[in-house]
Model the fold of this input.
Amino acid sequence: MTKKIIALLLFVSTITLAQEKVLLRLNYEKGDSYTMNMKMAQVMGMGAMTNDMDIQMKYDITNASKDTYESTAKYTKMVMNMKQGAMNMSYDSTKKDEELDEAGKMMKSQMKPMLESTIFMKGDRMGTILESKAEPNFKGAEKITEQSSSVVYPENAVAVGDTWTMSKNQEGMNMDFTYKVKSISSKNVLLDVSGKVSGVAEGDITGSIDIDKKSGILTESKINMTMKVQGQDLTTNMVVNQFKN
Done:
């Protein structure tokens, strides 16, 4: 009899855990400081064109209210390695001028305004960026919002198996994401990511996202896109990690 009772209690606790719901929100507090690392690898065709990027950004929460937050951010590192046929270009913002080749020096002059700028953002607790500006302004700063890799959380609490969708447009490329709650632990919420790409490119999206349950911060995101662009195969693999300083 005792064994049956224990087995029943374990069964009930398992069902209760599976039904746990989590309200996903960005629980930033004023004074919080975070570092984001983004690594991206792109390959077009049979490898005749490749693009590898390693970008680091530090951001500080300057204000936080019940529904919104404000932050400032600065790029702290940019590493780029591009190959197109026989031409190779590389740039590393941590290197001195004498350590860069001519192509690297040219890229440094192009990246300098971005590295010297401070980005101001305002967003809501669900992850939508409401306002953004850069001071001093730089070319492409107006596209920061659409290029954000943030997940916009659903309005209601979610349990294992629940899904929600999000769409974004970037440079004429429509991306429709579906997020599915794979598991909920005491510390993390794990999502499976799938989706479609349409517009100037056609393809599929797969990946996973790990979210810190308490803060709502995306701690790791792995997104893979396989597409066709003007008849050419293009694969993009992007890994983003964030941690509190």
Observations:
- The first strand starts at residue 33 and ends at 44.
- The radius of gyration is 21 Å.
